Amino acid sequence: MPPSSLRQPRLADVITQRLETLILEGSLKAGHRLPSERELAERFGVSRPSLREAIQKLSARGLLTSRQGGGTYVNERLSDSYGDPILEMLSRHDEFYLDVLEFRDAMEGITAYHAAMRATPADKEMLQQRFQALRDSYTDPGQQSDALREAKADAAFHLAIAEAAHNVLMLHTIRGLFQLLEKSIVANLAHLFERPNARSLLMDQHRALLEAILEGRAEDARHLAHEHLGYVKEGLMEMQRAEFRAQRAERRTQLLKGTPPR
């Protein structure tokens, strides 16, 4: 018997797979608008009807959505993959920031290692841009009073490292926790910046991490990521100890005054 012929995939299925790959690797992010049909068809070298069929399939799967006024977007709900009630509660309770930092330590050491091994020229250019934005947020007096802006720049730099690691599970795990991560950074920075020379020290840590990745020194990058987060963790623990001492002193004062401790 002659061997059975291999079934050729339909063009629309091939386009669907390519678009899914762009979403998985982070080239198309949640909430971002897709290029026009004409531009995408030219980029893929396909007909617009085939492209339209692929977009309809992805829309049916909940990956793409159309908005009033025109345009097709990556579904914003994809960024809520880690938005379960437990993580939402974590974001509201400061006492769990140490848990977040320990998770970051575990994840970001690995991503820094792989980024140093795998970063492309485009990745390195993006890392340098994000570092420049971070440096501006730390050194520009007009931005230093905006803790959220500093936190966004800090988190964006670390997210660029995850992107440069080229591991989609690591990337989407860190990206999915971005809002929780950002909130923890705001809290950490607010305390750390009370220390003398904290901004310059943090910038030195970020610069050393960037240089290790750009130069392909994977083990150094892993170590520097761990060292940086260790410094942040130490500062947070110091803040918590100070709060505990203040609470203890307040309870003693209340007892001396004869009022019930809170």
Automatic annotation (TrEMBL):
The keyword Transcription applies. Pfam families: FCD, GntR. Residues 9-77 form the HTH gntR-type domain. InterPro entries: GntR_C (IPR011711), TF_FadR/GntR_C (IPR008920), Tscrpt_reg_HTH_GntR (IPR000524), WH-like_DNA-bd_sf (IPR036388), WH_DNA-bd_sf (IPR036390). Keywords: DNA-binding, Repressor, Transcription, Transcription regulation. It comes from the Bacteria. The keyword Transcription applies. PANTHER family: PYRUVATE DEHYDROGENASE COMPLEX REPRESSOR, TRANSCRIPTIONAL REGULATOR, GNTR FAMILY. Transcriptional repressor for the pyruvate dehydrogenase complex genes aceEF and lpd. This is Pyruvate dehydrogenase complex repressor. It comes from Salinicola endophyticus. The lineage of its organism: Bacteria, Pseudomonadati, Pseudomonadota, Gammaproteobacteria, Oceanospirillales.
